[in-house]
Specification:
two-stranded antiparallel ribbon; seven-stranded mixed sheet; about 45% helix; 2 domains; binds 3,4-dihydroxyphenylalanine; elongated; 9 strands
Amino acid sequence: MLKLALMDVKIRKINQDYQGQISQATALKELDKIFLELFGKSGLVDQLSKQFKTLPKDQLKTVGPLFNQVKMKLEEAIRVKREGVRENIYKSLENEKFTLQPSRLTHKREGHLHLATKFKQEIIDLFAKLGFEQFDAPHIEWDKYNFEYLNIPKDHPSKDMWDTLYIDTANLKVDPGQLLLRTHTSNFWPRLMEKGKTPIRAMSFDRCFRYEAVDARHSHTFNQFEIAVVGKDITMANLRFLSDYLLQGILGKEAKSRFRPKYYPFVEPGVGIDCLCVFCHGTGCKICSGTGWFEIAGAGMIHPNVFKATGLDPKIYTGLAWGFGPDRMLMLKHNIEDIRYFLEGDLKFLEKY
Ligand code: DAH
């Protein structure tokens, strides 16, 4: 009997205390706090119902309904009070006079093009002046355009140079490994060459994808700008001219490039194009790791096997191609330390550039 009396008093006391607190509350925050104390995880309601387990059945019959009644009353009191508090807030807003401060009128928040979009336009305009036509190739691509026609046969070890994301073709009646996210923009020129319309003077600027562990310098999604020229007398001299044209166009007249021999299966000879460090002018600094140069592009003279695969005669035609990483160049130009900024909508970054 003692237990019952105690429990009974406890419940009534809680009701009294909290009804008082609820009626005095003036803010939604206070009501939230009260609600949690009562109904939250391990709140008073929870604690009490745990204590019921120790009560004999007949006593529970009396305390149970009282407990439920108090619970409902408290819940209802909080709900009604919440509405009242909200109502008061609306009323106070009605009386508030809105005036537009002059500073707000003059300081308009205007959107602008993304740094990478502006850079893309700049580069495309630069090459459009030389008569380069823009060409878009698919992002979801067949193996033949991304690899096979580019002299990278099936199961060839050089395929490992590109960490590839493959499309699951189980439901598409397509052999596994045939569809992929293009790993470079180099897929655009075998597509053009296959059409057989020469001469070709084309460019492509868009996204590429690789199976990369993402960090400050690597991203699964990145941009490339690529050009391809195919004709009857295309030589390394043209390649040199076009490399300097790009660098001087984006970095200024004093920019310089150098060629290093480098292997790419689809060009022969293949070169890595370096650019003289814009920060130390070749003396060596932290940003160029002391070498005085940055690698900015891969390039070369189109391999005879690419001509054969796409149906053009390598005895008649020659060609050049290069692929360049604009994201990396933008990072250098503006001292941006993390490539992930290009894909995220970080407002601080967007407003700064
Ligand atoms: N596609 C190469 C890559 O993504 C870059 C490249 C190298 C493009 C040599 C070219 C080239 O056109 O000639 O790694």
